[in-house]
Amino acid sequence: MVSFNLLIAVSLAYVAFLFIIAFVAERQAERGKGKWLRSSVVYTLSLSIYCTAWTFYGAVGYAARSGLEFITIYLGPTIVMIGWWWVLRKLVRIGRSQRITSIADLISSRFGKSTELGVIVTLIAVVAATPYIALQLQSVTLSTAVFANSSGQNWGAPELASAAFWVAVGLTLFTVIFGTRNLDANERHNGIVMAIAVEAVVKLFALVAVGVFVVWGVAGGIGPTLDLIDASKIAEWSPPGGRWFGLIFLSGAAFLCLPRMFQVLVVENDDESRLSTASWAFPLYLMVMSLFVVPIAVVGLDLLPDGSNPDLFVLTVPLAEGRSGLAILSFLGGFSSATSMVIVATIALSTMVSNHIVVPIWLSSRAGGAMMSGDVRYAVLTARRLSIGGVLLLGYIYYRLSGGGEALAAIGLISFTGVVQILPSMIGGLYWRGATRWGAAAGLITGFAIWAWTLFLPSFGADEVIPQIVLDQGPFGWAWLRPQALFGFAGLDPVIHAVLWSMLLNSAAFVIGSVLTFPLPLERLQGAQFVDVFEHSTGTRSWTHGGAEAEDLLVMAQRILGSTEAQDIFQREAGRQGKEGYLPDVTPQFVEDLERELAGSVGAATAHAMVGQLVQGASVSVEDLIAVADETAQIMEYSARLEAKSAEQERTARQLQEANEKLTALSIQKDAFLGQISHELRTPMTSIRSFSDILREGGATEEMQARHAGIIHDEAVRLTRLLDDLLDLNVLENGQGTLSRQEGHLRDVIDRAIAASVVGEGAIKIQRKRTEEAISLDTDLDRLTQVFINLIANAQKYCTAADPVLRIVVRKAGGRIAVDFIDNGDGIAKEHQEMIFEKFSRLSDHRKAGGAGLGLAICREIMIRLGGSISYLPGQGGAAFRVILP
Amino acid sequence: MATRVKKPVFLERASYRQRRLQDMARILPVLAAILFVLPLIWKLTGNDGRGTSAVVIYLFAIWSGLIAIAAILSRKLKLDPENGSGKEEG
Question: N or C: which terminal CB in chain A sees fewer CB atoms within 10 Å?
Fold first, then answer.
């Protein structure tokens, strides 16, 4: 007999192994080495979360109870997968082009980015998934109990409950660690996908091993096994036709609608060709999984005493034959099935809960909306982590309340039927442009209500939620509302009865609601983009003009995407428009793209609402749509050719315009500067001349002479400095002079710059993280120090805050080291940001500034010579400069 | 884009083959559904000779066949997203 402690040790070792696998996969992906993580094989294996513990244990139990019917659960998904050209291909394409984060996001996004629909779908999904998660916890505890009992311990309800509790805690931990590393739900969870792929192999191997053992080890070959089947109590082929047909439909539909399947099929998919491979490989996986189910069931029925739980045959048959190694393998298979399903399901559900329920509430609870302070990323991630815990807690509570029902299959089918209520809205939304959000809401609510009344609530048992008398005679004696015989259709199987009525009335409400109502402009736009996704991936814009300031958008984007990523997006767009720096023109296209990026993190509805607050009142109208449609029809042929040209022209024009603006401003400034420089040269000259005249005339006291000579000296120094700067700049610009390369540390350079520039009372406060600065450099360190001194000195001079603070942040941006100097003053107005690096430009006429406006120009020239760059970084709450090191 | 306004009525051999393959990919699930439901008719005809074991063999044979056809199709079908607009109407 297997010692119970050995089993626990093996399980813990297995869990540790999974942690390591996930960790290694994350590391590989971070270093960009994880190409193999994204292969079609891993994708196909990750789909195997369809086969939960319900398959692993439940299918055999199901077969022992009702013969071949279990196989319908795998035939449905097979049909869907080999029919991928119809639905899945479109779903994946839409998921990628609209950056869909979950099935709730899909429905919400399709119907005009509606927050309400997101909430409805999320609620349906959570309610339907809870029993299913409970089922997984139950299967793990039951299978553990089998070993505990066989090694002499006697497990009762308290031990089972505590085992379930610890399993739930462990799963929460794993999912939080590997499932909430990135905010962007569209980014792949490499660690988790890898762990799941490994678990998929383990469970397949375990089930096949048990099957092979049963067929060749116990029954004695294929022929005897078939004889055994014909001799068993499931020999007679007499499926209730309705169930056979209905269950194939149900499982196929659930395959599309289950949040966890949507997660692996669509959200984690990064390449459509994976789908093409999975279209045959996944049915193959399913077939192998179900190959040995019937043999195990009949051998179990034959071998084990009457009354033993057929759901556990996969474990008890090897145990009864004394194969403890096989039994442990089989236990690990069941454990894998349960854990992988729970992990993905909780990730999918927590994304939905956080994006569609928590974040909208959090946003609306804060005045100021999109411009509020605080880090949205942190809030969303926290919401997601809490939701993971919450979902598992719900599952655990359901498990405790239901007391662990006997037949696993029944719970699975109830859950399937619940989640399938999303199907009409989803399919309708994909293929029918006339579907509206009212129709979708009506269908979803109707279907959900009928499911709850006819299947979910009665499943707790008579008199638990619904009294027996209501089951028999209907509420208030209305017989046509009897939960299991709606409209007098008595005698149907309860599941089929529920599927039939909920699907019929759901679809009817959906169609009638859609036909009677009128969609919003945004709905029509989204509808067209979804239904015709293969026709035109980009069509009309949902924003007719960009009424927002680029800087405001950047501030918001930084809070959601993180500063590095947001700055990247803005810089790329600015580059595409032919502009320098971080602030592109706010074109409708750009707002659209940005919104989509944000949608990948917080869902379409929230992203749209946040962008909408900045781009006031610029959303699309019916007239715009019609105008655009007319135009489209007329100029379709031209547009393709013209578009390319006009984009090019636009870019050139923008560049020209920019250059022109710069030139005009420069020439004005140059005139002003010439005046100024003559003035600056004259003032010291005048005083030098007059004081030297006084000295020459003589007669002054010793003390006076010394004072006059001092003034002459100071003025001469000022002159020299001015001329030095001019000369320096000239040398740099003409590429003369040599660089003296040295090796050194960034930290020392910054130390030196601070020591040289921060002196005296009321000096600016410097905040820095010395640990980040431990970077070795090989460049002209003196020149670099000069740049840093200049920036620090500028911050000292111009920072207007009462308590000036300068933050020096070192970070990696695009593979290079960037040093940001950020102060807490007023910053630089947008219209001046372009000019500050030009020669002779000075924003204020502060005489106290002292310089001639050459400092930043010199800095720029130095950085260009060194092979780096310096730029102004907008949207940081003060003046901010970014130095990118060579 | 421009191809959508004037769509060619007749295609070259290679594109023609692609269209028919797509037709195949669309028909396959329908065929699968019919074949999977077929055993129900055996029962209706009252053929008692076939028990569970016969149905098991039948289903797994059909299943393997479908997987094989799907595998061949997935190799031959092109997922070219550039020409996505052209191949929608087969």
Answer: N
